[in-house]
DNA sequence: AATGAATGAGCCTTCATTCAT
DNA sequence: CATGAATGAAGGCTCATTCAT
């Protein structure tokens, strides 16, 4: 009875292949043809699974959001204090960048490719980064509950911006030195 | 007798048009056809002026580097102290982002579009950001010459990463709130 | 209800048109645009039917092999003896060259256009000529079974080379005099 | 006083480069741009030296005719008897084909590329082959002056056709076996 | 004699999408 | 649910030639 497990198999396979290609080659540089070729599917099947390429792009970013957050949670699993969690977030950044061969953030890369601010892709990008911002807010709220609301917001945002700057410059220079400065600064902030 | 001023006019016009389009639409989304149409030139002329699209891309980034640096210098022209220069750099960021309708940094956008680390475009991107990093180093050296070399390097890098994170998230959210946190943090760092 | 007969119609039509153009104008001088124009098809359709122009070129030569062999077989249909079959092969050459207005051999012409020895086109050319060589071997084996293996191979190859030389010089001079000498020599060889 | 030796230097260099490229890549596959690039000349210079690409093509074939004939004469220099001269012609074929890596005859290759019978290139091709035919006529006239005019013409033409067939099939198969059969047959003819 | 910018048609190929089966 | 033929605009690039300098 493979019916259940087969259900949506094609869609899943297309998404799986597209996720890899979108990330490695960029969204616009990846064509539907290559996706269906590597997913061993037909053109028509693609358009029964996804309304359009953009639809697939949105699905990719949604899935990527889950995946990436999963990686981060896993990296933070053993961390007890909020201090180590925050530092762990930056340490995770270092490990991840090495693993992805400094390809960088799928969301920021797609942001660069997508000037149209009203694109559905842009919405996913903004939501993903918003949630990351929230994560830092959450950490900071736990770490220094006695500070003022405004001060906590300021620290969370600073951590977020530092994270993003580090991320993008590690990708740019394919190097770890941005992370070292960031980590030192994070320690000072806490 | 337009002879003298006409020299190189076509190349300059192509570069002018391409710079606008590459920035507004992205490098890969902009085709040679559109460029030559808007530059009122023939296909062949394009390829007598530029070896390839990538060659034009490099010329664009080189010119953009000069242009953007010029804007920044102009914005810092009236600043006396290094403290106001550093703060002025971030204030410039705010004005520029508003002016460009939050299209963001040509270099970071192109980084997102260009996974191949050995691309000539990537070289230009790295050099541009390297120079910006150097600018912060220069400011910090002037501002706190009594601190240790390592400490100054740390502060310069932190400012650089904060600048980059702010830049990219202002673009992402099309908002100024990242800048406010960044400015506050910069003041603390100085 | 043209459903059944329509299946594969576009591919066949493209091949039909391309075969004519490749032969009349040469492989490299014939562009995809002209082919699809005359086949009344869209650009994309071409590439769903054929992987590349070279792929079409190979299909052309494969089909041409069948067609040309068919013409030859038809010309030899009434011939009883192997002697008349061999002579008939050269007589066919004369009739064919007149019919094609001395355009010559599609395979030899493509050989001239294709310096790369490892091209798929070259493989088809070699196979076609190999088979023609084999045909002469077959004829000779039937005609003089009492001669030595080496002698028969020699005669078959001589006939083959004579055929090829005649073919190419009839094309070159657009004349029949090479054939007359060839025929006389063939008679002496048998 | 380099004036004299410099005279026509550009033209000679273009012809030298074009000869190599036309032969190695084919006439149509070789563009003017590549020629002038490798000849280190400007577009305009090309068109002051040659009326058109076809004009250069004709110059190439004319020069090639001289060059190739020179090679052949050199190969036959030591041959005393007409018999050895004729055999030597075929032996030369073997050495030449090896030297040119089986690229074959510039004239036959260009014939394959040039369907238009009235092309100036075709004239050069025909003349070159006509002269080769004449050479065989000359040899045969010397070798068997007692035979009838018609018989001598027949033998000369047979040698010519055999030579051409051998040439083209050595190129096709990139092998020497056609030459062996040809040589054996030539010996029988003499 | 030599230069190289300018031309525009043409090169082969890929694009995202539709639709009849 | 899956197929793959069909579309036609667009992709980056080369073509042979002209002409003002």
Structure summarized in a few sentences:
Four copies of one chain form a homotetramer. Chain A has 190 residues and is an all-alpha fold.
**Terminal Cα span of chain A:** 55 Å
The biggest beta sheet of chain A reads: none
Oligomer: homotetramer
Largest interface: A-B, 44 and 44 residues
Total separate domains of chain A = 2
What spatial form of chain A do the alpha-carbon principal axes imply?
elongated
CATH superfamily membership of the largest domain in chain A: Tetracycline Repressor, domain 2
Task: List the secondary-structure elements of chain A in sequence, H or E.
Answer: HHHHHHHHHH
* Low-confidence region ranges of chain A: 1-7
Give the CATH class of the largest domain in chain A.
Mainly Alpha
- Number of H/I helices of chain A: 10
Strand content of chain A: under 5%
CATH architecture term of the largest domain in chain A = Orthogonal Bundle
Instruction: Tell me, rounded to a whole number, the average pLDDT of chain A.
Output: 94
Radius of gyration of chain A: 19 Å
In total, how many beta strands of chain A? Answer: 0
> CATH topology of the largest domain in chain A, which one?
Tetracycline Repressor, domain 2
Structural class of chain A, by secondary structure, is: mainly alpha
Helix content of chain A: over 70%
Search tags:
190 residues, DNA-binding, homotetramer, elongated, disordered N terminus, Tetracycline Repressor, domain 2, Arc Repressor Mutant, subunit A, 0% strand, mainly alpha
Secondary structure topology:
The structure is a homotetramer of 190-residue chains.
Chain A: H1 3-6, H2 9-25, H3 32-39, H4 43-49, H5 53-76, H6 82-99, H7 106-113, H8 120-143, H9 149-173, H10 177-189
The structure holds a DNA duplex (21 and 21 nucleotides).
């Amino acid at each position: 009875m493979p019916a259940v497990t087969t259900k949506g198999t094609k869609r899943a396979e297309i998404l799986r292949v597209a996720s890899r290609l979108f990330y490695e080659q960029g969204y616009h540089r990846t064509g539907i043809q290559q996706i269906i070729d590597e997913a061993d599917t037909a053109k028509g099947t693609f358009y029964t699974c996804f309304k359009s390429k953009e639809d697939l792009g949105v699905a990719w970013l949604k899935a990527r959001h889950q995946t990436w957050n999963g990686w981060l949670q896993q990296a933070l699993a053993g961390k007890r204090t909020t201090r180590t969690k925050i530092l762990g977030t930056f340490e995770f950044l270092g490990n991840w960048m090495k693993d992805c061969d400094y390809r960088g953030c799928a969301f920021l890369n797609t942001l660069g490719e997508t000037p149209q601010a009203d694109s559905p892709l842009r919405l996913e990008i903004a939501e993903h980064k918003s949630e990351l911002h929230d994560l830092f807010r959450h950490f900071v709220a736990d770490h220094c509950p006695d500070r003022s609301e405004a001060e906590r917001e300021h620290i969370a945002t600073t951590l977020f911006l530092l994270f993003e700057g580090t991320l993008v410059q590690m990708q740019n220079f394919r190097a770890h030195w941005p992370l070292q400065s960031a980590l030192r600064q994070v320690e000072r902030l806490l």
